[in-house]
Design goal:
The protein contains 9 helices and 7 strands. By secondary structure, it is α+β, with helices and mostly antiparallel strands. The longest helix is centred in the first third of the chain and has 74 residues. The N and C termini lie far apart (about 75 Å).
Amino acid sequence: MLNGAFGNTRSNSLMSEYASLLGDAVLRHRARIAEQSARIEAELASKVKSEFIANMSHELRTPLNTVIGFSKLLAEHERRKLGDGEIVEYAQLINDAAGHLLAVINDILDISKIQSGRYTIDAREVNLDEILQAAIASFRVSAAEANVTIQLRIAIDLPPIRGDAVKFRQIFTNLLSNAVKFTPAKGTISVEALRGSDGGVTVIVRDTGIGMSEGELLVAMTPFGQVDGGRARWREGTGLGLPIAKALVELHGGRLEIRSAKSIGTEVVVILPSRHLVTVAEGRDVGAQLGHEASQRA
């Protein structure tokens, strides 16, 4: 009996010791995995930060150099005696560079406000067909220069929706900018606006551009992400166009979906809810806020 009891006690002790050792080994393994994951995330964050700084330096320096260079030429007008045509050309180049610089800065400020939750929209009833026509009109010249055709089809029964007209213009300007930028000569961009099943509006922007793989699409949807992050990339940009467009669509209660294939093209679908649904959602938000304030006063 004693031997049996002693054997059981020893067996239990060995099992406890084994369990303790096994637990320690599992904890060490998990700690190594966590440390490795943290190191990979830190390296990735450092790489993204470095690429962002390099890309932003390029995006800011290029227009600044244009402004500085041509304004210097204009300042030397008395000595060089520029012709009227040259003065107009230089002034236009300076204006274009300044506009590009302002767009870069605005994109950075917009994504910062969106990520911090301080971005607001001025929701009113708007006609999306007018916004689409204005957005496309602003790209007619650049598309013609790139030998790219832009087509617009708007449904006759397109309903008005509720939202911020300026932000809607920004959404479709960003999408069209990408489409024109990445569609080669003799390509086509089509914009189609349809009435949604819930009374809202669905806008589809298709292009016959270079397209993206699944991995490249994930990068493109990441703020400051560049599918081609190198300094010698063949298209300029901050990498904020798609993330800002997606965020603005979601602020309006809608959703943005992208389908793309290499060497075939990209299709972006913007689904916006009806003005009734948006109004109901806004009413609930206001009601919840008023209820919260009333409870605080009580």
